[in-house]
Design brief:
The structure holds 2 protein chains of 2 kinds.
Chain A (H helix, E strand, L loop, with lengths): L7 E5 L2 H5 L2 H14 L5 E5 L11 E5 L2 E5 L4 H13 L8 E4 L7 H5 L17 H6 L4 H8 L4 H11 L11 H10 L6 E6 L8 H8 L1 H15 L3 E6 L4 H16 L16 E6 L9 H8 L23 E5 H13 L1 H5 L9 E8 L5 E6 L4 H8 L9 E6 L5 E4 L9 H6 L8 E6 L4 H15 L5 H18 L7 H14 L4 H5 L2 H9 L1 H10 L13 E3 L9 H5 L5 E2 L7 E2 L9 H5 L5 E3 L1
Parallel strand pairs in A: 1-2, 6-7, 6-9, 7-8, 10-14
Antiparallel strand pairs in A: 1-3, 3-4, 4-5, 10-11, 12-13, 12-14, 15-18, 16-17
Chain B lengths: L22 H8 L6 H12 L6 H9 L3 H10 L11 E6 L2 H5 L2 H12 L12 E6 L11 E3 L2 E3 L4 H19 L1
Parallel strand pairs in B: 1-2
Antiparallel strand pairs in B: 1-3, 3-4
Helix pairs in contact in B: 1-2, 6-7
The chains are: A alpha/beta, B alpha+beta.
The structure holds flavin mononucleotide, iron/sulfur cluster (2 copies) and FE2/S2 (inorganic) cluster (FES) (2 copies).
Amino acid sequence: MEVLHQPKVIVGLGSCGIAAGAAKTYERLLDIKAAGKLNFDLAKTSCVGMCYKEPLVEIHDQRGWVMYGDMTEDRIEQLLERHIGENEIVEEYAVSASSFKASEDDFLKGQLRIALRNCGHIDPESIEEAEQHRAYKAIQNILALEIPAEEVIQTVFDSGLRGRGGGGFLTGLKWRFAAQSESDEKYIICNADEGDPGAFMDRSLLEGDPHSVLEGMMIGGYAIGASHGVIYCRAEYPLAIKRLNIAIRQAKSKGYLGDQAFGNKNFSFDIYVKEGAGAFVCGEETALIASIEGQRGMPRKRPPFPAVSGLWQKPTNINNVETWANIPWIINNGSEAYAALGTEKSKGTKVFALTGKIKHGGLVEVPMGITINDIIFKLGGGIQDGKKFKAVQLGGPSGGCIPAHLGHTAVDYDSVNATGAIMGSGGMVVMDESTCMIDLAKFFLRFTQDESCGKCTFCRIGTKRMLEILERITDGKGEAQDIERLETLADQIKNNSLCGLGQTAPNPVLTTLKYFREEYEAHIFQKKCPAKVCKPLLHYSIHPTKCTGCTVCAKKCPTNAIDGERKGLHTINQELCIQCGECYTVCRFDAVVVD
Amino acid sequence: MRIHRIALEPQALAEKQYDLQPLQQVFAKYKYKSGSLIPLLQAAQEHFGFLPAAVFPAIAQETGVAESVIYGVATFYAQFRLKPVGKNIIKVCHGTACHVQNATALTDALRDELGVKDGGTTPDGLFTLESVACLGCCSLAPVMMIGENTHGKLNGKMALKILRSIKNDALVLTQ
Ligand SMILES: Cc1cc2nc3c(=O)[nH]c(=O)nc-3n(C[C@H](O)[C@H](O)[C@H](O)COP(=O)(O)O)c2cc1C
Ligand code: SF4
Ligand code: SF4
Ligand code: FES
Ligand code: FES
């Protein structure tokens, strides 16, 4: 614990915090500090993942630390005056604290942070702070003790760590393949393409603790005998790219990267960042390699696997950001410590991005094997606006929906796969009764259809046909045989596609068909959307006794479909109604009925 | 969410002259190493805001890569634009979290107000409307980004309000 001469104020400046106004809060703090009335040190960190309380400001002083939430620029001055000026703990904004139970302790308490160990605790732009938190200890130990590469690989193997990018392949085994390939040159790649729309684990990690990823890659390079590393990061993450480049510069200037890294004659390793250019399929490893080589990012047939012939036809080992971030911890703490966590076949922890209709949206890291219900209700605080939990989507466009009645499912690779969904990279989108499952399936299919590279006929055209059927169903023009057609197409696409994009594209449709078939049937046969989302299937009318004749809806209706005398019952002309829902929104008497 | 930035209208071909001189600096920086095609295109787009047609033969000459291959790469990736863009790029997030929180309403409202399709630019050159997948602020869904500023927890009306205030500022500036 560092000695504090005066209070230290730390602002969380991840992309997410900045979007919520943290940069303005920071500027305000600079002004307050400059004014000189209150004395404190000002520092930056990245994000702890408590998105729903951003901007977050942490204050350390002799009393310990308190984290305050919702610290927008207009609130911060008053808070400082109370906390620092008057020595008061401002409980109404405290979300977590060292010395008392604060409002959001549950969100943090249920977590176990390994990959995210430093996120929100260090200034990600300072290598010194990272080193105070054990950065580069693992690689330094390996080099100092001359631990053989094979032993490092065995440690990773024994830890049971599986790839966090979605596939879940045993990391140690993958390393061994790459290590066994003979070549004058080998490569390490960090997959930071994070294509799943609605997932931000990797972004947060890169923004919050870039050194952990660099160190992981160094250890990988040492283990397989590679001297170059590439981080392929999506261009939509400018802050992550900036912080990675800062971290690389700092590591270089300290001699941790480059020729004879750490002053070791036998170890040279270099890393550079390659910006993606916006193509989901480039998350697939062979497409990613093609993209680094400057080509169209199209997958190719495997074998040969990248471990044999990858970047520039050299043996290459690709792992995901979160996988890399776990490595230094495993080396420092031993494989047993990691393998002690989780379940029999899924060891360790996993980071999830909790979003959708959840009260406490954010980033959580939990031990494998915890149940979905625990994540949603214990950590996530349950569903927004007191609505009912309907389903959770895991694995993005490649994954599927797990319905509420399977909420007891343990989050590990095998249990999740058994439901028809996949673990994926960690996107967890929570849905309530107001989400239409067919609309959701359509959303994902439109995404994969757009992103298909076009190489395989079934992926290119089959997804388009499926999308057309889903569009027809949500337009109220569904036909009796459509469900069967979807199933046939899904089967064909799964079996006739080259890469994971095509092979998994039907999953969102198949899982919703499995668990929410009655919703498909309602759309097709009754021409109704039970969640009241699909506009062409909605029918607006005015309740004869609830309507007070206030005329508001008639004035707002864009097509003048509503008629009625002041203080008299209003009615909707169905011929003119375009189902925009404006009347439903404006009526203060709940008189507009939608069914 | 991929939008279609490839111009089909012939007018985009009859484009004005662009000074390609600044590209030389970029060429000097990357030389031509295999693998630098995408960074070259990114740098060119950074400079012009999009990829004018004249860029393709210039890069082809410099790198020795066939123009058709370069065009193939440029059209494969969603990031590259072959049409000029507006002063303000409005990126409406259509990631899963935003979709579930009704991002469609934002795009619909903006599209009607601006009179352009997804990917289109207003005739006054003030706005380009785009869809993106996940801006990484999912807990503020639905989200849109205009320039550097991210706006969260929106609905159609709020999105229009922000749009109009930018329009007004632009008017004030030109007066
Ligand atoms: C269409 C498609 C997209 C993918 N996108 C990503 C991604 O964004 N990030 C990622 O780490 N892995 C992604 N993967 C998985 C990678 O191909 C690869 O398995 C992974 O990077 C390996 O690292 P890991 O073993 O550490 O998980 C994707 C796979 C497919 C088929
Ligand atoms: S399955 Fe789809 S994305 Fe994958 S290679 Fe084939 S066409 Fe391309
Ligand atoms: S707004 Fe409601 S109460 Fe007023 S006229 Fe319309 S339906 Fe009746
Ligand atoms: S607060 Fe940073 S990920 Fe949300
Ligand atoms: S889904 Fe919109 S910000 Fe992530």
